[in-house]
Amino acid sequence: NAGVTQTPKFRVLKTGQSMTLLCAQDMNHEYMYWYRQDPGMGLRLIHYSVGEGTTAKGEVPDGYNVSRLKKQNFLLGLESAAPSQTSVYFCASSYQMGQGSYNEQFFGPGTRLTVL
Amino acid sequence: KNEVEQSPQNLTAQEGEFITINCSYSVGISALHWLQQHPGGGIVSLFMLSSGKKKHGRLIATINIQEKHSSLHITASHPRDSAVYICAVHLTGNQFYFGTGTSLTVIP
Asked: Which of A4, A23, A35, A37 to mutate to test the interface with B (most CBs of B within 10 A)?
């Protein structure tokens, strides 16, 4: 099993350009998450999904859109990139968090995005 | 505002030392996670706990819900333990808050 994979690993954009980050997992996980990690700050949740066709906003959703058309894929889109979106982006997935049950998250390797 | 505070921010230890990393949080939580981020950037989950204590090899994690505090202990530390250790709290409603991490360096 590949676990959680992210594409691409690195990307440089100019301000105003758009791009999509792809996250794929082969563990049949219901839950998927997109985080950003910035120097001196903890990981921050951008958006998450609790199942195919559903998405929800996290702590810092502005400037990003997401889609979960297939259970195994979770896409993060930047419609008009800004320098403030320069960051390392991590995708994660986990089994459904049933009542009283909290499952560990499995993380992808990260995507390093620079917006000039 | 920081819902999760970790201490120390940086830690250097000699190989073999007993290490403690602390995590305090200010919100009601459903569970707490300890993560390890390798120098290459990859993140792995070490523990998830909502009460008591868990042990895995040389790693021990404890949590005191009343005091809103958790500790991660590493016994007989080794250079391969050098990494950033991150505390994260899981709130109801699928919200997670992460600490900024403790950077650990173990010197041979």
From this structure: A37
